[in-house]
UniProtKB/TrEMBL annotation:
PANTHER family: ARGININE-HYDROXYLASE NDUFAF5, MITOCHONDRIAL. Belongs to the methyltransferase superfamily. Keywords: Methyltransferase, Mitochondrion, Oxidoreductase, Transferase, Transit peptide. SUPFAM superfamilies: S-adenosyl-L-methionine-dependent methyltransferases. GO terms for cellular component: mitochondrion. One of its GO terms (biological process) is methylation. This is Arginine-hydroxylase NDUFAF5, mitochondrial. It is found in: Mitochondrion. The keyword Transferase applies. One of its GO terms (molecular function) is oxidoreductase activity. Residues 72-164 form the Methyltransferase type domain. InterPro entries: Malonyl-ACP_OMT, Methyltransf_11, SAM-dependent_MTases_sf.
């Protein structure tokens, strides 16, 4: 099968086209984090969150009730979702990731798969290529004013193609965030961001609409994981390749501050058995690329029955039932 590839030069122009909008994440740092995490000998033990979210996104793929000849999984080279799908639903799958290690260590699945080393912000495929695009827990929202990745996903989809994905929501890890802020205020007199900023649910629908998607669906879910302590939470985030990669991150966290934050975390949020919870808010989204066959809303004012008439009909039905 031949897949058309477009030049990265034109894509880089797309990424930098809006000079007034600032990217949130340092893509170079994110690549290094994912390379390091995927090179760990026990990297699979940190995949539990992506596995869970991948299965839930796969459920949404089955809900669409159609077969997809060609699909693209953006930014998840280890194919956490593909193992939950069958080749009866997805006939051929392309995997992209910025980490070569992730692609090399991908899991086996029954769907014929092809790997492409590519940044999510520079998808090297021509327009109208894929029937389905998937993405789970990838930093696809790097710019809230000009969502480059979402726009490119829209471009590579065929008309009437569907994008199904999941991103981490803004309330994720609020326990860790609050504990670190309180500890830094106490020990250092101020605080800096140590956790990557995440997408607010109020922004997600607007971003999908801005990219050109219609028939949007956005829903929220929470996954809570219990850990022995705060240090284990931070260690697992590092093992997931999800350490803070924002441009405004503070690289140094003092030992005294960490110990104080761990104590605050356990005091404020600790469970009775001594463990501490970490909450991951997951935002699921579905968007369709417009096509003339899709249902469209009728024009405003074209209705020939008013709500007042419906109310009268309801009253008349009740009267007839009584008689």
């Amino acid at each position: 099968m031949n897949i058309s590839v477009r030049s990265l030069r034109s894509l880089r122009g797309l990424s930098s086209g809006r000079r007034g909008a600032m990217n949130v994440f340092d893509r170079s740092t994110k690549r290094k984090q994912k390379e390091w995490a995927s090179s760990l000998l026990d990297s699979d033990k940190y995949d539990y969150l992506r596995d869970e979210v991948g299965s839930r996104v796969a459920d949404r793929v089955y809900d669409v009730s159609r077969t997809f000849p060609l699909a693209l999984d953006v930014g998840c080279g280890k194919s956490h979702m593909a193992e939950h799908l069958s080749k009866d639903i997805v006939e051929r799958l392309f995997l992209t990731d910025i980490s070569d290690s992730s692609l090399r260590n991908r899991r086996k699945c029954e769907i014929p798969s092809h790997c492409v080393l590519a940044d999510e912000e520079f998808l090297p495929f021509k327009e109208n290529t894929f029937d389905l695009v998937l993405s789970i827990l990838t930093h696809i929202i790097n710019n809230t004013k000009y969502p480059v990745v979402v726009i490119q996903i829209h471009q590579v989809l065929k008309p009437d193609g569907v994008f199904i994905g999941a991103v981490v929501g803004g309330e994720t890890l609020y326990e860790l965030r609050c504990s670190l802020q309180l500890a830094e205020l106490e020990r250092e007199g101020g605080f800096a961001p140590h956790i990557s900023p995440y997408t607010a649910v109020t922004d997600l629908g607007n971003l999908l609409g801005q990219a050109g998607f219609n028939m949007l669906t956005v829903d929220i879910d929470e996954v809570q994981v219990n850990y022995p302590g705060m240090l284990e939470v931070m260690s697992d985030l590092q093992g997931m390749g999800e350490s803070n990669c924002a441009w405004n991150r503070k690289s140094l966290l003092h030992r005294d501050t960490i110990l104080a934050a761990a104590a605050i975390y356990k005091e404020m949020y600790g469970n009775e058995d001594g463990s501490v919870p970490a909450t991951f808010q997951i935002l699921y989204m579905i968007g369709w690329k417009p096509h003339e066959s899709q249902a469209k809303p009728v024009k405003r004012g074209s209705a020939n029955v008013s709500f007042a008439d419906l109310s009268k009909m309801s009253k008349l039905q009740k009267t007839n039932e009584k008689s």
